[in-house]
Fold each of these.
Amino acid sequence: MTVTTSSDANGNVSAATARATERAAESAAAAAPQPVTFAKALNTALADALTASDDVVLFGEDIGTLGGVFRITDGLTARFGEHRCFDTPLAESGIAGMAAGMAMNGMRPVVEMQFDAFAYPALEQIFSHIAKMHNRTRGALKMPIVIRIPYAGGIGGVEHHCDSSESYYAHTPGLKVYAPATVADAYRMLREAIDSDDPVVFFEPKKLYWSKETLDLDALRQQYDDGADASRSEGRAVVARQGTDATLIAYGPSVSTAMAAAEAAAEEGRSLEVVDLRTIVPLDDQTITEAVCKTGRAVVVAETPGFASVASELVARIQERCFHSLAAPVLRVTGFDVPFPAPKLEEYFLPSVDRILDAVDDLQWEA
Amino acid sequence: MGTEQPGAAAASAGEVDRAAYLDETARKFGISVEDYLLPTHGSIRILDETGRLRDVGEQGTAPGHEYPMPEADELLAAYEALVVGRRVNDQNSALVRQGRMAVYPSSHGQEACQVAAALCLGDNDWMFPTYRDSVAVMTKGIDPVETMTLFRGDWHGGYDPAKYKVGIQSTPLTTQLLHAVGVAHAAKLRGEDTVVVAMCGDGATSEGDFHEALNFAAVFKLPVVFFVQNNQYAISVPLAQQSVAPSLAHKAVGYGMAGERVDGNDLIALMAVMRRAVRLAREGHGPLLVEAHTYRMQAHTNADDATRYRQDAEVQEWMAKDPVTRMRTYLQGEGVLDEAAEARIAEAAEAMASQLRDGLNAEVEPDPEDLFRYVFTEPTSQLAEQQARLADELARDAATQTEATR
């Protein structure tokens, strides 16, 4: 990544100058932990990435003047200019294909797909080119592209606005798949995705956009910019809650549901461990294996329809690695194998605390 | 991008002067009305089918659009590339028949398009070819064996696209046009004067990415020349079943870009038209669409049987328009191509053929572990595990074989 030190041929302010101005403005503000939304953390990560490198460009549908339908790019066009954050014609394949070409010519595009199911026209470009270009050219061409996808349900969205499409991408060799579940990870993992030289499909759980955590974004930024080990999430699952009786494996929007289930189970005297995968590709087999072998029981929680999904893959890997430590079959709590339902039916489809607790009850406990 | 309201002009178009309306529309896109309407003028042809130079008035050019003839030495160099290209096509088809290559989509009959696309570009310009454009790739200076790696079956691509500024030849149709748009957009954002030639065929114009690429390029005013080789067939499906537009170049009108038609078997016309298009794109008047009328003389690939869907008489008709013969006749008539030059060019073509034969006959032992090396910039732990598993499997096989031979 390069950072120039002066304005370019178009008179655009360089990253270095922009960064100095940013720093001055930020040091004036009180750097104390405060409630930060998932959306704000993503917005800040994008702004910081734009500041860090002139090669980073953002584009998509309605992300300029409007700031995106979820306002994740709010204010970025005004702050960084139309050449850094811009609207495209309404065409997802065009967005992904243009990103591939820009990456071939030295840029680091970050594109937004407006909704999970609206990304499907882009699948040919993503699967056939973005995922394969590095391999096809034996490493000559890198594809440092981030495809941001607001995804999954829980917001009462209409048809084609709530798909859990991660299994399609995770199945495609050459794509990395990130699914942050916390506000701090939203910041760190988006920065990491943008700095990755591999293409990253970045799943943003819509239902978490307005969730809050009390944290110090300046400290997170500093930690990331300093290259602190704690800032690295790729291939590193975290044990979000320690437990001894059974292990819940979750990612993205299902982590908060799993945490709530663990809380409820504790009240009933059962100690559940919760693993937050953070990235699906690459997968942290080691943390999963340790967490499941420790308790001997596991439930995989995911919104995706379960058949031939990320959840199936997790169950398969757990039985391959933990077979002799298992006291019960590994169960799944996933969406049903039906199209994502209409808003008034989604509560019957989505993994819930009750459904997770029922599955835990079914883990063949001794009387 | 612009602030003009196209609806306002269109609504009153019926009542206002048509020429004034067209002029206004064209100016909105930053091009002249003549350029905007070029597809309606017919095809540019400078050499007729017998190799005779047409008078300027007969060349099909619109008023104010005379095309300067390339210099004699440029034409001779282009003719050499044409002859070498023909030899490459025929040598590769022979290598497929001999089992040295998995497949080869020949551009026999389309070599003038191939040569013009490669020769119209400057050092900082990019080209995005299709799988049928190997001759263009080689004319751009890429090693013939590297070019043929895809078709030999060693790997999906054999050259570094960034080093040569030539996109990889790949088989999904039309997707490369969007990559061309991205390369041009990146260059424009950095203030570079790169021009990109994006190639596709007539069948590809039916794909959605064709529309998306042309529209993106037009909206962002990018320096891309879309070069459609209309060779009349998409495998077996004739043009009439792909499009009922008056011509493929007419599609430019809808995107607000200049379009043009050219005889795709006339190397001089192709060079003139492509050079002009590249110059206009570089000057900020892009994108542009050029449709070349040509013919795929052979089957789609060796796996195809063209006699099932087209008549021999049609093929014979196009044989009479052969781009190599036409150019040779012209250059001989001008005294530019004498026997010595012809002999030298034939020798260059044979040298290329021999390079291809030697390169493609050499046995290459691919390394199975390469399967895992380039999927990501660094293999994931999952891939490292699978790589170790394959290595173990191969070691076990080797041990079993050693035991069997004991």
Note: Chain B is about 50% helix and 10% strand.
Amino acid sequence: MNSLFDAKHTWLHSINPSLKLVTILSLFIVAINIHFLDLMIGFLFVILLLFIFATGYSYKQLFMLSLPFVLIFLSTSSSMILFGKGETILYKWAYIQVSEESLIRGIHLGFRALSFAMLGLLFALTTKPVKLFYSLMQQFKLSPKFAYSFMAAIRLIPIMIEEYQMIINAQRVRGLEQRNNFLIRMKRLAIPLLSQSIRRAYRIAVSMEAKRFQSDSKRTYYYKVGFSRNDLFFISYFLLMLGLIYILSIHDPFLPSTDVRYLPE
Amino acid sequence: MQRGLKLTDILITIVISIAFGILYKIWGPLYYAVKPFGLHIDQLIYGMWFMAATVAFLIIRKPGVALLAEIAASSGEFLMGSEFGLEVLLYGIIQGLFAELILFAFRYKRVDLFVISLAALSSCAGSLIMDFYKGYIGDLSTWNLTLFIVFRVISSILFTGVFAVSIVKALEATGVTNLVRASSKKDHEALDQ
């Protein structure tokens, strides 16, 4: 992903990838335990700040990357808004029932999905997969046979996409494109793609085994991935900012703060 | 025979999963196109997301393959910058773990449609647990929630069960699965007697 665009190298790029991954997964746990809309908006804001100002990508690139966010928001919130439980009915038509509670809950879910999407993109945009797997081997003692398999497989993605195009074109030439249903078409794509991938993976694995890539004995690494002062700054940023929005939302809520979950009285 | 996964098994599992990742990305627009109506028609193709686990297991048939496949498929999606963000990674881990549990319960010996469909249902249950916490689906009105779950169950069995088995049957016909299975399977049969 990050090879698609040129980006300035920012402090986010230099953070230890394992630490970044653990932090982001912890933020996921924090976010699914936020049940107040105020706090959710604050959480989104904390991530948005980093997303806009710290990834090193131009605003144009960030805007392009943010386009699917509209769809994410709509698709996540709509079913809860239209069909959620709630008492204060705002609008009712046939099976559709929009209540104040379900509206707030739907918006809450939309913002939650947005914050996850942004966190994920933040990670993908500022982390090189190779550095991530080196770091996982060095910091988390991930077995090299897993790490190198992942790295080899990631390298195959462009080849597989090219092959997919070739299969599509070959089938188009033979007029197989529009006929039949979704499942048959998918099967017709999946089988050549999978069988070629398995053959290629087998050949690569044989040569990697020949070069002792699977041995788990002590090995040396070309890249050494360590820690820096930026790591401390990264963690402090989230601790401080999240603490701040938590205190603010308790003392000075700018929205009626009620639990968005449905709690029958 | 060496216990556990060899590098060949691992690499093939991961490559299969990433091929699925590409297929997911291609059919993604379809998922989006049907999603915003709120009637959960999207759930009818949701089972696709568990397929990597059962297809990889049907090809390699070793402990840990289903879990690894789901982790690889989801981390591939995550690293490519998926629109769904990091939740795919956690969903992947849970779904793979739940499929793995069923396969473990049958000692990795049975590979028929029944067991594979059970694994599919288990993955489906895992994803629903995540949705209860993350998506508050328990707060949907009852008819809507029922629709949601029924659609997802149907698609799990259809894609992860029936469709996965039929894809692997077709792959077996091409002979490519012999690359990974031939010697070890014969060895097992020799040992069983």
Note: The helical segments of chain B are 7-34, 51-60, 65-79, 87-105, 113-134, 142-174, 178-192.
